[in-house]
Each structure stands twice: as structure tokens, then as C-alpha cells.
Amino acid sequence: MTTVEDRAALLDQAIATGQAIPQLTSEEPMSLETAYAVQHAGIALREGRGERLAGVKLGFTSKAKAEQMGVSDVIIGSLTDRMRIEDGGTFDVSRGVHPRIEPEVAFRLGPDAELIAVAPALEIIDSRYRDFRFSLADVVADNTSASAFVLGPWTPIGQVDALAVDLLFDGEIVASGSTADILGDPLRALPAAQRMAAAYGHRLVDGQVLLAGAATAAVALKAGTHVEARVAGLGSVSVRTEEG
Ligand code: OOG
Ligand code: MG
Fold it and tell me: 103 CA distance to ligand 2 centroid (A)?
């Protein structure tokens, strides 16, 4: 039997080399509890290299995403400081396996794990599994495909339940949705994250980030693209892709 640490090391190696691996569940079955243990072991490897926790993310909070990936349960993952790209910064696509990008809404957490600010966000996801295909346990073990994230300007929390969301590549809209697509109202990300965090050993920490999940399906990234997410009323956030 493969240990939790062995599985975390396999995924960690895939991140380091950009080489996809077979789904862990193609070798042997894996419970959700074990999958989260693998996820935490992978984060521990990163922390051992000096990375610091920067927040948590939810996945499959929208129908568009659940349908795209064929997985329907909400999942939680961890974000580290090294995954953060400054607004307007660059992402090197050659470091990834097959990165995709999706427009999101991010919240900043306060001292009592309440939501204190909201921002438009971009998440770069990059499954470490071949062909970007996985079961729920596989994607949980793979830290919910987390690769990088970009945060736009923070705004105090207001009504955010029906804001138009557009994803643009070089100024052209490639995907559109609404913040209503995220759990009906992205503010529901907080109770969802609290429930998931309590169940699976994550923490919601003052000053850290909660990524609520994508409002549209994810779109494949290639080098030399200016990617922007616009969320009506919240402004925009962008990243440029490069190669090498
Ligand atoms: C898993 C991550 C899902 C989201 O926003 O729904 C996610 C994946 O699609 O590979 O981040
Ligand atoms: Mg996401």
C-alpha cells in the first residue's frame, strides 16, 4: 500500500517537473479523508521549503465548473504565499503541466474569520493528473489543482450576489458568468469554507484569503496572453503569461 507521504511526494514531484502523473485512484481506492491527508502532507512539504499559508480556496462552487470537470461536491484547498502573483504580474506557463485560468471572487478574512473585503480574482489551476482528468479524491489530494492566484483591488463587502463576470484574453471575452453562479451568492463561501475547514483540518486565519470559486468554466492558458477578469462593480485583475 502506498502511504500518504508517498502520494504527496508523487504530486509534489509532478509540480516540480511539470510532468503529469496517472490518477492516484487508478492504482488503489482512496477515501476522501485519506485524500485530504495527502493534500495536507503536500502542503507540509511546501512549508518545509519556506512557503507560508496565505488562505484557502473552494472548488466546484459553480455548476459551470462541476459540469466541466464532471465532479459535483464542493472541495477545499490551501493557498500559499508563493502561489500569489501580483495584479498585472506574469505567469510562466512552461512551469506548469497544462494550466488553465478562471475568474473568481476573493474575500479577505478578519480576526473572527468574518469576511471584511472583496476583490476580483483570477485562479490558475493545473491538475497534476494526465489529461486534466480525476475523481473527487484525486483532485482533493492534488490540493484542488491549485497553482497560482491573482487578487485585484479590495472593496468593503456589499451586495455581491449578482455581478456580471467576464474573462478576457487579449481584450476578447472568452467566458462570461455571474457571481450568482458561485453558490447562488459568493457570501455563502464563508459558511461553506467554515464547514469544510472544520471537517478536513483547514484554518480560516485573520488577514488571509478565501477564494470562493470560479464563476465560469476554466480556459486553457498559452504563452503571450494578457488575461483579465472583470467583475461588475468590483473592477478588474490581470496577469500576463510568458514562456521560459
Ligand atoms: C479543480 C479546482 C476547482 C473552482 O474554482 O471550481 C476550482 C479543477 O477544476 O481542476 O478551483
Ligand atoms: Mg478555482
Answer: 8
47-101 pLDDT, tens digit each? 999 999 999 999 999 999 999 999 889 999 999 999 999 999 999 999 999 999 9
Pocket test for ligand 1, best of 65, 75, 179, 209 (most atoms within 8 A of CB): 65
Verify whether ligand 1 is closer than 6 Å to residue 125 (CB atom): yes
The pTM for the full model equals 0.97
Compute the distance from residue 232 Cα to the ligand 1 centre, in Å: 22
How many Å from the N-terminal Cα to the C-terminal Cα in the chain? 38
Of the candidates 124, 151, 117, 123, the one whose C-alpha atom is nearest the C-alpha of residue 236 is: 151
Which phi and psi angles does 37 have, rounded to 5°?
A: -65, -40
- Per-residue model confidence as pLDDT tens digits over 130-142: 999 999 999 999 9
From the number of C-beta atoms within 10 Å of its C-beta (0-12, 13-18, 19+), residue 236 rates as middle
Considering every ligand atom, which ligand is closest to the CA of 140?
1
**Which residue bears the cell 458568468?**
177
* Burial of 204 per CB tally in 10 Å (0-12, 13-18, 19+): buried
Give the CA diameter of the chain: 51
Q: Is the CB of 216 under 6 A from ligand 1?
A: no
Averaged pLDDT of the chain = 97
Tell how far CA 6 is from the center of its chain.
23
